[in-house]
Amino acid sequence: MATHTAEPAAAGAAAVEHLTLEDRVWLLRAMLLMRGLEERAMTLYRQGKVPGSFYDGYGQEAVSAGAAFAMGPRDRLCILHRDLAAHLIRGVTPARILAQYMGRAIGITAGRDGNVHFGDRRLGCVGMVSMLPDMMLVATGMAMAFKLRGEQRCAMTWFGDGSTSRGDFHEAMNWAGVQKLPVVFVLENNQYAYSTPLDKQFAVDPVERAAAYGFVGVTVDGNDVEAMFEAARAARERALAGAGPTLIEAETMRMHGHAAHDDMKYVPKEQVEEWRKRDPIERQEKRLGGLGVDVDGLRAAVKAEIDAAAEEALAAPMPDPATAVHGVFCDADAEPLGDGQAPWSGFSGGGA
Ligand SMILES: Cc1ncc(C[n+]2csc(CCOP(=O)(O)OP(=O)(O)O)c2C)c(N)n1
Ligand SMILES: [Mg+2]
After folding, report:
1. The whole model's pTM is what?
2. What is the structure's pLDDT at 350?
3. Which of 27, 92, 153, 323 is most buried by its number of CB atoms within 10 A?
4. CA 24, CA 60: separation in Å to the nearest integer?
């Protein structure tokens, strides 16, 4: 049966039991870094230095930061286009992110792709497949492998409200439920799928669908990073205990257009203003500021880190055309999946 947790305050309070103050600062830092990097990347995009289109997760930083932070070093994360904080929490450096967006050789795909399709497997990050929501199937498949091998590991994937209308969503949920797989599904409900609002997307609250597949579904305030963490921590605990998957519905708002080209004139201004009052970064700053954390100092340190990253990425070369297409397909020389311990990941209770 699905259970519902729609009380962010209670979830937030539970999170504090499992997080040290240092962990809580890391969560804020990851969100600040995500926002700052995306803002810098947008500037670079406008200067013509980022090819293709540009997607960001402005206002949704807590969803990826909180959920990713709950995962252990040997877990695997299938990360989508608005979840940059998950890469950062796993230890991908800001310079490599900006270089990735600009197609530079030091980027994660060494210049073969841009803003959306990338993931450093050594850090447990799986690059995104654009067909939505195929990453749910990838994560479910990885969870199946973990189960068959008897490994204490968990897979996590993010996807949007628009993904819930696709057949793959149901196939992944069904198989994960039948097999009781160690997978955490994070539904990023940001009110729109491109220009389609929720009332044209589903006739029932999507979290109810977990019950149809025999596992737990929880609704969480997706703009509260500690509530997100707690929901993911509990989901991972269930997964590793053999109790099967969890669907976490993170309620949030897409504060920018679908991508840089979209002025989102179909979104009422009042709706954006309402959500602005629930900004996830301001909320965490207020919390930690009240505990004596030097929030201004942290902001300044993050800005300096982004300045240095931009400098390094801008100075990096473009890929060498002679070798640019090497390693596109998996082959004997491909690097094996590693168990890289990210410098930031693994909250105090995260375990192996
Ligand atoms: C199967 C499929 N159809 C269409 C698209 C084009 N597309 C990319 S993102 C997107 C909207 C997705 O909305 P949602 O799942 O809510 O995610 P959000 O962008 O809001 O985070 C669409 C239609 C796609 N990538 N895959
Ligand atoms: Mg959406």
Report:
1. 0.93
2. 43
3. 27
4. 17
**Atom from ligand 1 closest to the CA of residue 194:** 11
CATH 2.40.70.10 fits domain 8-315:
no
Average pLDDT over residues 4-18: 59
Residue 250 burial (CB count, 10 A): 27
CA–chain centroid gap for 100, Å, is 17
CA 217/CA 185 separation, integer angstroms: 9
Residue 9: which pLDDT band, with cuts at 50, 70 and 90? Answer: very low
Top mutation candidate among 194, 196, 255 for ligand 1, by most atoms within 8 Å of CB: 194
Separation between Cα atoms, residue 287 and residue 298, nearest integer Å = 14
Residues with CB under 6 A from ligand 1: 82, 130-132, 160-163, 188, 190, 192-194, 254, 258
Instruction: Give residue 333's pLDDT band: very low, low, confident or very high (50, 70, 90).
Output: low
Q: What is the predicted pLDDT for the residue at 56?
A: 98
